[in-house]
Predict the structure.
Amino acid sequence: MTKQIMVGGVAVGGGAPVTIQSMCNTKTEDAGATIEQILRLEQAGCEIVRVTVPTPEAAEAVETIKNSIHIPLVADIHFDYRLAIAAAEHGADKIRINPGNIGGEDRVKAVVDCCRAHKVPIRIGVNGGSLEKELLAKYGRVTPEALVESALGHVALLEKYDFTDICISVKSSDVPLNMAAYRLLHERVDYPLHLGVTEAGDGEDGRIKSAVGIGTLLAEGIGDTVRVSLSEEPELEIPVARKLVDYITAREGHAPISGCFAKAYNRIAPERRPTNAVGSIGGQNVPVVATALSPADVAAIATKPDFFLSDVNWKAVDASDKSEGFSDDDVLLLTSHHANPVGEIEAFIHRLWDNGCKAPVVVRMSYDDANEEDVQVKAGADFGALLLNGLVDGIVLDAPNLPNNADAVAYSFGILQAARRRTTKTEYISCPSCGRTLYDLQHAVKEIKAATSHLKGLKIGIMGCIVNGPGEMADADYGYVGAAVGKVSLYKGKECVERNVPQDVALTHLIDLIKANGDWTEPKQ
């Protein structure tokens, strides 16, 4: 069990219920607009809210905001340690500092002294987009070990000054990397952990990516507070987070599942279970998507399933059965009726692995929900865990009550892409925006996706500002990053190729950049 801290009157860690957070995208200096947004967040069920504090005026506004809301207020600090001190003095209930840009030990000590005096906890918020330069040089890139080393270095610094009211996050937009970092950190500390997948995007993709990354960790008992980051209005993040937390925690107290990890399994950063290739299923083939729908049901969707259930001679198996008696040439279609189906399925496959069986496994799970978001969250959490843990060779997502049944196939491919197990469409790394954002990010995300969604396999970063922008999209092919009021800078990989482009022409410039580098194709009519 983790240590418990108090954020205002809300307990985090130590067995307390997992709390739901969000962050304002208003200018904190505009206290009225920020208060209005926080009150909407409260109505949506937000339990802790964060605001950016980039200026002394924003730090002063913390007091006005705090006196007008009913949930704890967190001040988000980058670059200037003096703003952390001012925010704490003006009543912030928690301070978030970024080890990658807060400065040297003397500055951290000054923040610690102030927070101790005001009984304010500190979140050490490590982000893959703003990792310290010396750690990037040491590891060559952002890695789980680098993120955790950054966090532990600052934990040690706070502990040096006898400060232990600490919460930690180690976020990345790369879901497998994010998962490995949190697992590694969980083994090293007993401080409460703040979970999130940064720059998850919007719409269906953002919800699925968040469910895959956060749900996998929650199911393992990792995480004490959660923020789902969507490039949408903050109040839309809350129901996603609430559904995810409730779905996972509803399994508590289920009937025990007997099992252990396979001997060859690496639980921090799993590799895919070795399987025999039966046709195009298993072996070195990418995980497949199969469906119980008919060809007519999926005729209108762009990316067709790899298989219909009638195409394959499956060996239907329930995860409560014994993991023995199978041939390596069987293709197992695995289901579970346990209250914790993912746990039972994983236990079955680990036994299969230890038994030396290399039969590929395709997992079938069904969801009765009629609401699209419910299915995205639940299926993302379930299948995401199995894919991230390298245990399956394909998935079958049944959602018979969706308004459009074929959406289940699209969600399946989205889950595979979120887990970075297969790419079938453009990937967008887009931040949720905050008070630092100087252009209309939500509009930019929509118009960029509308213009480029046909560019399969391309990664495009759409970032609000320079805090995490260039770093978080380091593995993106192209980047669109806020630079000034109403202006953005364009990137090819890590290189900034055009600065301060007015937003009204920036999309045209981005398309021209993609064309100039030979990555553009015309969309099919």
About this structure: The first strand starts at residue 5 and ends at 7. The radius of gyration is 23 Å. The chain is about 35% helix and 20% strand.
